[in-house]
């Protein structure tokens, strides 16, 4: 059984994270389509539980780059968090594994609808299996393309629920191969889960006014403070295999350490 404190703790953090992120998105004129803190799916596993939002997070009509607000993107992220339950009564659950996806779409409008064309996508994993089988896998790594075939279906469903006249354009396999290139290449990364992904998107697409607007700069700093809260179990990853994870245990595995707050 999932401890009610673990469940409520994750949901509270999700709500706080969403409020901070919404402030940054709306500051660019975009819109955040995001599950509420009660829209989480909790599933029991053999030694703990898995958490994931019931539908993906969508950054709708955000700047393609900070230096120009004219070109817009629609970006989806989703992810899962796997926890191991505490070994003693009252001990908090520990995050042991994460997986996440990000997909970038270019919107184009016609007379009847808004169509979204895929332009790039990545998935990020923490590989936490048998050390012999996972020897070729960096502890944290990224690959081009999204992790599972049903992810696009989830993106499409989330979009339809919020914008009935929008459509994600499917891409045939040849075009996907041309776009994503060598999908088997694993690039070592810091820990990138759904929350870390949102920080990267915020830095690259939502902070264009930082140099001229102190409110935007403060919002970004507050957002980094939110996801770097060390009291929150959802962002601290425990490694079962210490030998393989020595490098990853360094504090700079966390994305929020990679941005200056001066």
Domain count? 1
Helix content: 25-40%
Summing up helix and strand content along with how strands pair, one would put the structural category as alpha+beta
Largest sheet: 10 strands, mixed
Give the oligomeric state of the chains in this entry, treating copies of one chain as homo and distinct chains as hetero.
single chain
For the secondary structure, the number of strands is 10
Count of separate DSSP helical elements: 5
Mean pLDDT: 80
Beta-strand proportion: 25-35%
Shape descriptor reads globular
Order of helices and strands: HEEEEEEEEHEHEHH
For the CA atoms, what is the radius of gyration? 19 Å
Structure description:
- Strands 1, 2, 3, 4, 5, 6, 7, 8, 9 and 10 form a 10-stranded mixed β-sheet that branches.
- Helices cover 27% and strands 30% of the residues.
- The protein has 5 helices and 10 strands; from the N terminus they run αββββββββαβαβαα.
- The relative contact order is 0.16.
- The protein has one domain.
- Strand 4 and strand 5 form a beta hairpin.
Features:
262 residues, alpha+beta, ten-stranded mixed β-sheet, 27% helix
Short description:
The protein contains 5 helices and 10 strands, in the order αββββββββαβαβαα. With 262 residues, the protein is α+β, with helices and mostly antiparallel strands.
Summarize the SSE layout with pairings.
Elements: H1 4-27, E1 31-33, E2 40-44, E3 48-53, E4 57-65, E5 68-84, E6 94-109, E7 114-126, E8 140-144, H2 151-162, E9 166-168, H3 173-180, E10 187-188, H4 194-205, H5 214-227
Parallel strand pairs: 7-9
Antiparallel strand pairs: 1-4, 2-3, 3-5, 4-5, 5-6, 6-7, 7-8, 8-10
């Amino acid at each position: 059984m999932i401890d009610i404190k673990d469940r409520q703790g994750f949901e509270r953090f999700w709500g706080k994270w969403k409020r901070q992120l919404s402030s940054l998105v709306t500051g660019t004129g975009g819109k955040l389509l995001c599950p509420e803190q009660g829209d989480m799916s909790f599933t029991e596993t053999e030694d703990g539980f898995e958490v994931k939002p019931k539908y993906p997070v969508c950054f709708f009509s955000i700047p393609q780059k900070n230096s120009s607000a004219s070109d817009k993107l629609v970006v989806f992220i989703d992810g899962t968090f796997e926890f191991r339950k505490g070994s003693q009564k009252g001990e908090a659950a520990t995050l042991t594994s994460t997986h996440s996806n990000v997909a970038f779409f270019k919107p184009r409008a016609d007379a009847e609808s808004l169509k979204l064309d895929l332009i790039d996508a990545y998935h990020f994993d923490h590989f936490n299996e048998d050390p012999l089988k996972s020897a070729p896998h960096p502890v944290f790594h990224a690959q081009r393309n999204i992790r599972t075939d049903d992810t696009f279906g989830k993106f499409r469903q989330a979009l339809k629920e919020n914008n009935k006249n929008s459509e994600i354009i499917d891409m045939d396999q040849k075009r996907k191969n041309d776009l994503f290139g060598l999908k088997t290449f694993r690039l070592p990364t810091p820990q990138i889960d759904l929350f870390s992904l949102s920080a990267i998107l915020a830095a690259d697409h939502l902070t264009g006014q930082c140099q001229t607007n102190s409110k935007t700069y403060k919002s970004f700093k507050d957002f980094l403070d939110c996801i770097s809260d060390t009291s929150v179990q959802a962002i601290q990853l425990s490694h079962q295999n210490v030998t393989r994870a020595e490098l990853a245990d360094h504090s700079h595995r966390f994305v929020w350490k990679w941005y200056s707050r001066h």
